[in-house]
């Protein structure tokens, strides 16, 4: 099913930028996720925040402003577990819930859940080795 741009009053690039910045502020304060992000993003956070604002504008507003490749960027991360995505989603849901009306928050959260699922599949799902014996009849 094709997703359409979210057309809600007040949901624009500036709003998404505020949500992204608040979310990453909370992530950086989290005891588990903070150190992971600190290892990956050293120095100035602004380029990452702008990239994530572009990403979320593409996801929510369908602006096509994001030109990155999130799967390869995440697959290379060391020390990330599937459970870390639950923490990420919880912080994201709390942030969206605090900054958005309930219907708008629901859209952000549903899309974040799909993104997290996609990244988890890319990072952690491995097909079993091919069966080398004879196939039972």
Structure description:
It is a single chain. This protein is mostly helical. Helix content is 64%, strand content 0%. The chain has 6 helices and no strands. It has helices spanning 13-29, 33-40, 46-60, 70-75, 82-99, 102-124. The longest helix is centred in the C-terminal third of the chain and has 23 residues, at 102-124. It is globular, with a radius of gyration of 17 Å.
Briefly characterize the structure.
The protein has helices at 13-29, 33-40, 46-60, 70-75, 82-99, 102-124. It has 137 residues and is an all-alpha fold.
Q: How many strands in all? A: 0
Biggest beta-sheet profile:
none
Percent helix among the residues? 55-70%
Q: What pattern of helices and strands is seen along the backbone? A: HHHHHH
Average pLDDT score:
90
What characteristic shape results from the CA principal axes? globular
What amount of the residues lies in strands? under 5%
Q: Give me the secondary-structure category.
A: mainly alpha
Count every helix, treating DSSP H or I runs of 4 or more residues as helices.
Answer: 6
Contiguous low-pLDDT stretches (5 residues minimum) are: none
* CA-CA gap between termini: 40 Å
**Radius of gyration over all CA atoms, rounded:** 17 Å
Secondary-structure map:
Elements: H1 13-29, H2 33-40, H3 46-60, H4 70-75, H5 82-99, H6 102-124
Helix pairs in contact: 1-2, 1-3, 1-5, 5-6
Which short descriptors sum up this protein?
137 residues; mainly alpha
């Amino acid at each position: 099913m094709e997703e359409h741009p979210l057309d809600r009053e007040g949901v624009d690039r500036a709003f998404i930028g505020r949500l992204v910045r608040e979310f990453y502020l909370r992530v950086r304060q989290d005891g588990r996720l903070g150190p992971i992000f600190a290892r990956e993003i050293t120095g100035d956070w602004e380029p990452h925040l702008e990239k994530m604002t572009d990403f979320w504008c593409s996801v929510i507003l369908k602006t096509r402003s994001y030109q990155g490749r999130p799967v390869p960027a995440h697959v290379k991360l060391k020390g990330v577990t599937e459970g870390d995505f639950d923490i990420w989603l919880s912080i994201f849901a709390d942030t969206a819930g605090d900054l958005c009306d309930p219907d708008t928050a629901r859209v952000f959260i549903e899309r974040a859940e799909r993104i997290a699922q996609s990244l988890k599949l890319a990072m952690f799902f491995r097909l079993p080795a091919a069966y080398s014996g004879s196939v039972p009849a």
